[in-house]
Amino acid sequence: MAKQRKIPMRKCVATGEMKPKKEMIRIVRSKEGEVSVDLTGKKSGRGAYLSKDKDVILTAKSKKVLASHLQAEIKDEIYDELLSLVDGDNK
């Protein structure tokens, strides 16, 4: 009998929903304070997860959820990159 693998779950900082890690996008702040999108999920630093949903990303931007969670300023380029990643997944 094959043993079932545990699926790592993460919480979306915008919605509070728990989802499998693979359905989320990780945004990371390095020790130097640089904020970037972490596609591998392995960069070192403080991480925050967002659902791969355009509405969730726009909500996070308007409420400044990432900025408060990562305690850093989030530039518009980060949100643009997140939106393009989500649009690419939907096609």
UniProtKB/TrEMBL annotation:
Superkingdom assignment: Bacteria
Sequence ranges assigned to domain YlxR in this UniProt record: 10-82
UniProt-listed CDD domains: YlxR
InterPro entries noted in UniProt: YlxR, YlxR-like_sf, YlxR_dom
The protein's name: YlxR family protein
Provenance organism: Siminovitchia fortis
Lineage of origin: Bacteria, Bacillati, Bacillota, Bacilli, Bacillales
